[in-house]
Specification:
alpha/beta; ten-stranded mixed β-sheet; four-stranded mixed β-sheet; 20 strands; 32% helix; 19% strand; binds inosinic acid
């Protein structure tokens, strides 16, 4: 087979703008092409502007507005109620159910998985990792415990019985391990929604991921695997334990779809012109000192109040730059509504994720967010134990890291108003990144809408 799957992978901590990238690619695809999700669940939040309206998808592939087939792959965890609700936000005139298929191997997220997720995070106290609370970790845990319920099970006669047995096991765990007694009322509404969602799932076309992928590849048509989260959240190669529970990297495409790795081609890597992160964990280039966004959030501070309120006056300047990135980039979690932590671009981390994914084509998003900055900074190296390095240490959270930065001048005017040509300062910045990262930047995002992109190499 000449055609190969192209993984579309976030190269940072998620929220790189993959949704917009995939939606743009999808607009050029035909009904014989395919976009699949291969991991994760509704912890993802993919924001797409379509016909001047903003949509946030959590489960449905971002190609929904195109003509290509869309598939929810075997490596995913699916909350049936969330999926059913999500389909309702798609305008009536967009016919997608005839293009949508789902793998029988995908795992079902149960109402008790959501409880296990939130209760277990709560008891961790300061050690929490900042889960989205969507039941992702408990449902993948059930997969490896070999007791999870899968989409294919919903067509079996004993599904309700198996559901009840597993729910009771979860209740037992909640009681014994977390001292949380689940009352019937606590579950009632969630369970009603779950069964509504199951009914909806039963109406969908079920198909093995490998079967649909190979069928499309044999016809030499295109297959894109839309990653969720980002490479630094990969369960094994991210900043463990501050990670999600699936393989978010290109390697996950093969196991998430049940296809041989030889069918997975070079990846398209998506990264923002700066860095954001939701949840806890190390963040070497974070602006504003120790976890400023978390500090703001915990103090219940609004953006306005935080302006002159950072407790450490020495980092006030950086703090304000971090706030400006958050404000100009609208950096609020699409799934949880949490303020995102913000920082400068981190080259050592990008090199790490580019090589891990074999990302040979890059998409740089949200460059316009830097419009009004006095200068742009990029971390080129770390200093760890007095040594300059660009290697990523085994456990980044245990190291004291000092960042070395390079500064770039900023263009005048708004990139979104400047059309298809980047001003020289922006172009220099893009060329520097290409040279340093060793890969082509094929698109540069200059605004949230699908058309606000500068295409290069065409
Ligand atoms: P979980 O996937 O809900 O278990 O959360 C684990 C970690 O991944 C937390 O730090 C979350 O904030 C983060 N996370 C999960 N999904 C996303 C995403 O789509 N974008 C950014 N961060 C995410």
């Amino acid at each position: 087979m000449k055609s190969k799957i192209t993984p579309i992978i976030g190269l940072q901590w998620g929220d790189e703008g993959k949704g917009k990238g995939v939606a743009r690619i999808a607009s050029s695809l035909s009904k014989n092409d395919l976009i699949v999700r291969f991991q994760g669940g509704n912890n993802a939040g993919h924001t797409i502007w379509h016909d001047a309206k903003c949509y946030v998808f959590h489960l449905i592939p971002s190609g929904v507005f195109g003509r290509a087939q869309i598939h929810l792959g075997a490596g995913m965890v699916i909350d049936p109620s969330a999926l059913e609700k999500e389909t309702k936000i798609i305008p009536r005139e967009v016919s997608f159910l005839n293009r949508l298929t789902i793998s029988p191997h995908a795992i079902l997220v149960m109402p008790t998985h959501l409880l296990l997720d939130s209760v277990s995070e709560k008891v961790k106290g300061k050690k929490k990792i900042g889960s989205t609370g969507k039941g992702i970790s408990p449902s993948y845990t059930d997969l490896t415990l070999r007791r999870a319920l899968r989409v294919g099970d919903i067509f079996q006669n004993d599904f309700k019985k198996r559901y009840t047995i597993l729910r009771e096991e979860h209740r037992e765990t909640l009681k014994k391990s977390f001292n949380h007694n689940v009352k019937k009322e606590e579950l009632k509404e969630r369970e009603n929604n779950f069964w509504k969602g199951i009914k909806f799932l039963q109406s969908l076309q079920v198909m093995n991921s490998a079967e649909i992928v190979i069928k499309v590849l044999k016809k030499e048509r295109k297959v894109f695997a839309e990653g969720a989260q980002g490479a630094l959240l990969d369960v094994r190669f991210g900043h463990y334990p501050f990670v999600t529970s699936s393989h978010t990297i290109a390697g996950g495409v093969s196991t998430g779809l049940g296809v041989p790795p030889t069918l997975v081609g070079e990846a398209m890597g998506i990264f923002k012109a700066y860095v954001t992160k939701v949840g806890e964990g190390p963040f070497p280039t974070e602006l504003g000192g120790e976890k400023s966004a978390i500090w703001c959030r915990d103090k219940n501070f609004t953006e306005e109040k935080t302006k002159f309120a950072h407790p450490d006056p020495n980092s006030q300047d950086e703090f304000e730059q971090g706030v400006a990135l958050r404000r100009q980039g609208c950096e609020i979690g699409a799934t949880t509504g949490r303020l995102r932590r913000t920082g400068w671009l981190d080259i050592p981390l990008l090199k790490y994720t580019i090589s891990m994914n074999n990302a040979t084509e890059l998409v740089l998003t949200k460059l316009d967010v830097l419009d009004n900055f006095k200068k742009i900074k990029v971390c080129t190296h770390y200093i760890i134990n007095g040594k300059k390095t660009s290697e990523i240490p085994f456990d980044i959270s245990r190291e004291k890291i000092k960042c070395i930065y390079k500064s770039f001048p900023v263009w005048s005017g708004k990139l979104s108003d400047l059309g298809a040509k980047l001003p020289s300062e922006a172009l220099n910045y893009v060329k520097y990144l290409e040279k340093t990262l060793g890969a082509k930047i094929i698109y540069v995002g200059t605004g949230p809408e699908e058309h606000q992109v500068v295409e290069r190499y065409w």
